[in-house]
């Protein structure tokens, strides 16, 4: 899977390090940011990610708003739709529905396993 790149947005340093390790084991480059605003800015600068993995609860801008703005950016620029995966410790169906409504493609529930990530690469 070398040569692939993902964008990870999570405000927790432990989660950031764990995700870097998991993607590293898959030989995938991982760009990590700490909030939804930084995720939007990183995507606008370089929209060539295999997917965006985004915690839904972050400071500055949450994952829901960031996903909506990424989708608006894609539409405005005529870019292909990038897969956006919400990330939460809450697997409630209402949370998943809120992610889908915000423009995300799926919700992954913490704790994650390498195999869960690899299916989206």
TrEMBL record:
Modified sites of kind 4-aspartylphosphate: 55
Membrane spanning residue stretches: none
BP term (GO), one: phosphorelay signal transduction system
Name of the protein in its database record: Response regulatory domain-containing protein
Pfam families: Response_reg
Domain of life: Eukaryota
Keywords, alphabetical: Phosphoprotein, Two-component regulatory system
Record's signal peptide: none
Database matches in PROSITE patterns: RESPONSE_REGULATORY (PS50110)
